[in-house]
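Researcher: Quick test of sequence recovery. Tokens follow.
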């Protein structure tokens, strides 16, 4: 399929998603305890990353050079890296899938997706939307199942060209180790250590609301979490006090209640993990969660122990392309290496 036609397909694929936004938003609260308003916002925001790659896919191009010599033509081609295996995490299943899919399709890679066993519902519905949009059945394949068994199989499969994983740093290391056996490329979104900076001349109410949102959004279950907010010493008491007041006024209720702002913990296993951390720490610190807005133009990713690779923006296309170089000698100007009598 040409770049022109793929661009049309990507734009057309947004329609079934947008029509089904309300029904998908109602699926996430019972699966993961996410407030219905939060789920609805995330699903609506996911439309932008689906549209963004449509125009750029028409101008993905290689390069050529004459610098090595007048009789030498160097050409570089950008080709799809191959099948992409994706292991999604439980907290933002629909958003994670939508963030990667259009870029993978734009560069002609097929995809196999293993959703979290806790939240497979919206991922499965996504497959129906793709069929309604006219996508061939083989472009995206779904493989629900246990993460340990199925995930390792995907990471070690010889036909997989790249594996993308979002989750903990410990599992990310294990996936990278498994993929290294075949030198497979990995894109890893792991735990982060983001910091927020609140400067003295910012609006007090606005800053406090932003920090409160970060602290309680997703109940701390987010891969783009922050870990600390930095205040100048002379404004710390005032700003932290304001955050404390706002936090105490948050609505904790059932996920389907539109007034709910704070979600429940995803599973009993997650709750046990949190309890364990709290017992070891003895008390909760003042760390906050900082939400990263889903602007499609901006590259999204991490570094060091927080992950590898980039998604979205122009990086979202080039992450799934390999560069192949071809050198052509256009005339017989090369001296023979083997001397013959």
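Model:
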């Amino acid at each position: 399929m040409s770049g022109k036609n793929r661009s049309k397909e990507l734009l057309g694929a947004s329609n079934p998603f947008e029509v089904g936004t309300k029904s998908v938003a109602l699926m996430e609260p019972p699966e993961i305890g996410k407030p219905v308003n939060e789920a609805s916002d995330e699903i609506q925001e996911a439309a932008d990353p689906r549209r963004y790659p449509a125009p750029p896919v028409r101008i993905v191009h290689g390069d050529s050079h004459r610098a090595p010599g007048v009789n030498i033509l160097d050409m570089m081609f950008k080709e799809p890296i191959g099948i992409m295996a994706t292991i999604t995490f439980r907290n933002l299943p629909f958003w994670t899938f939508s963030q990667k899919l259009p870029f993978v399709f734009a560069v002609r890679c097929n995809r196999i997706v293993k959703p979290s066993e806790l939240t497979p519902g919206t991922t499965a519905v996504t497959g129906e939307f793709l069929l309604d949009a006219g996508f061939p059945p083989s472009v995206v394949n779904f493989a629900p199942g246990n993460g340990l068994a199925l995930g390792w199989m995907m990471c070690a499969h010889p036909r997989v060209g790249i594996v993308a994983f979002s989750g903990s740093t410990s599992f990310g290391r294990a996936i990278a180790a498994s993929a290294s056996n075949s030198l497979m490329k990995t894109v890893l979104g792991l735990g982060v250590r983001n910091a927020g900076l609140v400067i003295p001349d910012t609006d007090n109410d606005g800053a406090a609301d932003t920090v409160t949102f970060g602290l309680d959004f997703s109940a701390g279950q987010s891969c783009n979490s922050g870990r600390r907010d930095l205040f100048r010493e002379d404004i710390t008491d005032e700003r932290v006090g304001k955050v404390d007041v706002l936090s105490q006024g948050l609505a904790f209720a059932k996920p389907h209640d539109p007034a709910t702002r704070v979600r429940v913990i995803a599973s009993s296993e997650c709750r046990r993990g949190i309890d364990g951390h709290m017992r070891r720490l003895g008390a909760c610190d003042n760390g906050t969660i900082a939400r990263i807005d889903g602007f499609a133009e901006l590259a999204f990713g991490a570094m060091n122990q927080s992950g590898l690779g980039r998604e979205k923006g122009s990086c979202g296309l080039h992450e799934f392309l390999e560069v192949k170089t071809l050198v052509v000698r256009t005339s017989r100007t090369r001296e023979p290496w083997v001397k013959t009598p």
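The two ends are 52 Å apart (CA to CA).
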